Amino acid sequence: MTIDLHGHSLSAAHSRLNQALASAWARDVRILLVVTGKPPKSPSASGGSRRGAIRGEIGHWLETSSYADRIASVRIAHRRHGGDGALYVILRRKK
Question: Mean pLDDT over all residues of the chain?
Fold first, then answer.
């Protein structure tokens, strides 16, 4: 299962992530591919650019999610799935 958060506002991305986690858990999906977008190429690009903001927040969102205890691990995606611009969220098996 894949969710693309790239291009969304922080609040919309957070909401979509929570919905995707709920859907993945309900459907017994073990791996959720979360596309956040590539990090900025240079830290000073556009001065106050919000590019990369989702990637900066996603760790906190996952830690504080109501599904945090159901997440086994979070890993950077393989290059063919987005590399630095995506993450695998691996969910635990249901008991």
Answer: 87
Amino acid at 30: R
Which stretch of DSSP H or E encloses residue 4?
strand 2-4
For the entire predicted model, the pTM comes to 0.83
Position 50 scores a pLDDT of 45
Amino acid at 25: W
What pLDDT score was predicted for residue 1?
94
| Residue 6 CB burial class (10 angstroms; 0-12, 13-18, ≥19) | middle
- Residue 32, helix vs strand vs coil: strand
Sheet holding 2-4, edge to edge: 2-4, 31-35, 86-91, 71-76
Domains detected in the chain:
2-40+51-91 (3.30.1370.110)
